[in-house]
Amino acid sequence: MNEDITKLEQIASQVRRDIVRMVHACQSGHPGGSLGCTEFFVALYFSAMERKEKFDIDGIGEDIFFLSNGHISPVFYSTLARAGYFNVSELATFRQINSRLQGHPTTHEGLPGIRVASGSLGQGLSVAIGAARAKKLNNDNHLVYALMGDGEQQEGQIWEAAMYAPFNKIDNLIATIDYNGQQIDGATEQVLSLGNLRAKWEAFGWDVLEMNGNVMSEVLAGLAEAKSRTGKGKPVLILMKTEMGNGVDFMMGSHKWHGVAPNDEQLAAALAQLEETLGDY
Amino acid sequence: MKKYTYTDKKDTRSGFGAGLLEVGRKNENVVALCADLVGSLKMNDFIKEFPERFFQIGIAEANMMGIAAGLTIGGKIPYTGTFANFSTGRVYDQIRQSIAYSDKNVKICASHAGLTLGEDGATHQILEDIGLMKMLPGMTVINPCDYNQTKAATIAIADHHGPVYLRFGRPVVPIFTDPDQKFEIGKAWMVNEGADVSIFATGHLVWEAIQAGEQLAEMGIDAEIINIHTIKPLDEEAILKSVAKTGCVVTAEEHNRLGGLGDSVAQVLAKNNPTPQEYVAVDDSFGESGTPAQLMEKYGLNAANIIAAVQRVIKRK
Lengths: 281, 317
Prior knowledge:
heterodimer; A: 40% helix; B: alpha/beta; Rossmann fold; globular; PDH/Transketolase (chain B); THDP-binding (chain B); thiamine pyrophosphate (chain B); Transketolase-like_Pyr-bd (chain B); Transketolase (chain B)
């Protein structure tokens, strides 16, 4: 187990390097939320999910994942590339003309690993519920994962989906909220307080657990616990406490790095804190 | 003028209900979703026969569009059912991102389109939906004219991979198309060949165009009437061939004159063969409460309006 954690932490370090390098190269994109969700993506794709090597959009016979808060595309793209869905060299094309790595994830350019476009917030949970429904119809005993932002909880559609899934016993679904307390205009508590998110989701009928999203061992344990709660008549929600910008000291804990790219000096300072473990793209 | 008669009248939404049941029997991947309007959408027969393939979403149209998008992942062919207003404007961004941009095989089935929804009034009478939907890249837009054509279209769209907007209505109208017709997406239907004017009509206006054509014939005007049931992709070939013969055009639709069939036709003509055109459409306004017939008259959408438009456009030749 400890060896596995070390290996996953090494992947996470490389993914963080990819994130800051991608965002720096095009001088745009969203490093803060991406860095905060790195452990989650790595744990999901390199440990928790049962997935096939080759991508097909229907994802029958494997676990599938939907990113609702599509702006954290850098961590998604890096993870997909490091997991082998496409060549890591393609990360250099992020947000550039004629790239499959669009600013926000899309199926339009046929990038392996992406099953729906996201970016306009609030839509991913509904899509995940539909895919979970399809799995049940297909007698496919695999899970559907979804990640949402915490600021995204301000979208009304989230709560339509939140109401639907427990009533319909969508219990092959694990949704996670990246609970970093930050959004573009500031702290969620300042912009529009989310109140007691745990109580809200529980009141809607979800089986809720909490985990620290920036400690690999806790993410692995949290995902394992979430998995153990599936198939019991309720959808599962993980309230995942993270720190925006985690892993780069000057980016940590501030909404200011939500959608800002580092300059050359900042990139050097960030990379000095992140070990190159798998080779830069 | 070719003679069209009818023995029965039904609502086009019932054609959808019948088509949904039949396509459900033919294709086990077909599933249906509804946002608390099962009776209005005539989905009960499908639900009775395929309860496990029907999903009641509740009054949550945005969620319905997202769930429909998700159901395609795994090979299902979802048909969503609600009023046209709640199928388009209310959920435009969900359709745009999760369905159209994501190239999801969702069939958005929209009842109670246009003024003929009647007494509920303008909050429910969408007259902008064709425009909204045809502007989405990759979206197919279909507005059939009677029960039989709506049923045939409902069945046919399952075999087309990609998002479809299928628009139909509430009022009981004559059934005048072939019950065994083969519905071909994007292929206009020649209702009547003529030489003096081309009338391009869609939806409920096709029957009005036939009524107009009979009266025009008595007045010595030989109208060509074409049913444009598919607004996107538009049958440009049929339009240009007709206009080359007649030299003038009337378009007729239960929609705002901005952004509907008329504008699609005008674009084809402007590019290929500039031709005088008159619009029979709602003149950039909202609707109001009333009976369907009262509203079609007040907003200028009946046979008399088509005749007047023909007379105007022929003078412009």
